[in-house]
Design brief:
The chain has 7 helices and 12 strands. Strands 1, 2, 3 and 12 form a 4-stranded antiparallel beta sheet that branches. A 4-stranded antiparallel beta sheet has the order 7-9-6-8, with no helix packed on it. Strands 4-5 form a two-stranded antiparallel ribbon.
């Protein structure tokens, strides 16, 4: 298939290439592998964070969202002045990680979700670190990779509860290692990640995509707003999953 980049404006091309694959400013952390209940499979999730995109994503929503007398509203202004430092960005990263655990679900047609029986997940309102539960309809059934869906999302938000999505959930695996790294940075136990976010901010400023003042990002420039409208920022945190089949070997022969 032929790939075309004609939609990227010429004057943004070099900065777009850097933003998509910023050398030295990508962080990938692999989580501990977990065996899927009643199956020979093991799943391992990896979260990759593009730090310049994370800064731009945090700035985009901080600029767009404003609190009025009654509620939080989207003012749709990418260049509204705010004040964001590396700690603010890491707090936003922790929020994203907390709300995008690896979810294993029993593949059930959308129209049958509401027919599933009440279960353990009805009492869960935010993603746990690690929890398994077999829906009553699956008790005694051998799970297979063909009838399990693997996703990254929060199944406990109200809109999905109304659809009954949480009742098809078999397991929740939160990104504990990733969150521990972010919390270590926020607690002053490891300054590496904070320094990397600061470096990303300075590089964005140097490229004319953001304005900074006193170590804080103040706002996107007009150029930065064009970049945000050209290149999606919602993939600042990328999640992927590896599935391994666990093999059992029968050992025999003489001992050494």
């Amino acid at each position: 298939m032929e790939v075309s980049f004609d939609e990227i404006p010429d004057d943004l091309w070099d900065d777009w290439v850097w933003l998509v694959t910023p050398a030295g400013l990508m962080r990938a952390v692999e989580e501990e592998g977990q065996s899927i209940l009643s199956s020979p499979y093991r799943v391992t999730s990896t979260y990759t964070v593009n730090l310049p995109k994370m800064v731009m994503f945090d700035l985009m929503w901080s600029s767009r969202l404003d609190m009025n007398a009654d509620d939080l509203v989207d003012v749709k202004d990418l260049c509204r002045p705010v004040s964001r430092d590396p700690r603010n960005v890491l707090n936003s990263l922790a929020f994203l990680l907390s709300n995008y655990p690896l979810i294993l679900r029993w593949k059930v047609p959308q129209e049958k979700l509401c027919d599933l029986a009440s279960n353990n997940w009805d009492d869960v309102f935010e993603p746990p670190e690690l929890q398994w539960y077999v829906p009553p309809e699956l008790e005694g059934v051998q799970l297979d990779i063909e009838n399990i869906a693997i996703d990254f999302f929060n199944p406990f938000v109200p809109a999905l509860r109304k659809l009954g999505v949480h009742r098809s959930v078999i397991g929740v695996i939160s990104p504990v290692r990733n969150l521990n790294q972010v919390y270590a940075a926020l607690n002053g136990e490891d300054g590496t990640l904070l320094e990397a976010v600061n470096t990303a901010m300075l590089e964005l400023e140097q490229r004319g995509l953001v304005e900074m003042e006193g170590g804080h990002v103040r706002k996107m420039t007009a150029r930065g707003a064009r970049m945000a409208q050209t290149e999606p920022l919602t993939d600042c945190v990328n999640c992927r999953c590896r599935v391994d089949e666990m093999m059992e070997y029968e050992l025999g022969g003489d001992e050494d």
